[in-house]
Amino acid sequence: MTAALLDALQEELNAVEAFTKVLEQEEAALIDGNLMAVLPGIVERKTDLTEKLSNFGKQREAALTDLGLPASREGMNTAIGSDNSLADVWKKLLTLAERARARNVTNGLLIKTRMDYNHQALIALRLAAGAPAIYGPDGRLPMSMQTR
């Protein structure tokens, strides 16, 4: 039965590796300013891999349940305590998943920075075009003119 768990873990590890590569491509596109050319493909691959990761996680949980273990991290810890091959793959999976999480956070910050820059550029263009910076009754600029 641990063979089914090992297979599920290996499939999940392969999917996390592929997901991490897509995140690396996304980061490179964000840094290079080439995002619009590759964004549709990146979004499609991320969506596909997210679905696969969810399915592989369910397979792992089912394999744990078949072994009479809880479908949780506690169950995994019990399973790896008796099988070194499981422990090796599980450790790689956790390490790579953390790397993917960190890269995803970095990409989110890059996207936010780009959005903030674009927002500031739009404000500057509106002001340069003579759009009035009129304050509302509350003493604030309209939302479309505010900086973030």
From TrEMBL:
Q: Which Gene3D superfamilies match?
A: FlgN-like
BP-aspect Gene Ontology terms: bacterial-type flagellum assembly
Q: Which InterPro entries match?
A: FlgN-like, FlgN-like_sf
Q: Keywords for this entry? A: Bacterial flagellum biogenesis, Cell projection, Cilium, Flagellum
User: Record's family?
Assistant: Belongs to the FlgN family.
Task: Give the protein's function.
Answer: Required for the efficient initiation of filament assembly.
Please report the name of this protein according to its UniProt entry: Flagellar protein FlgN
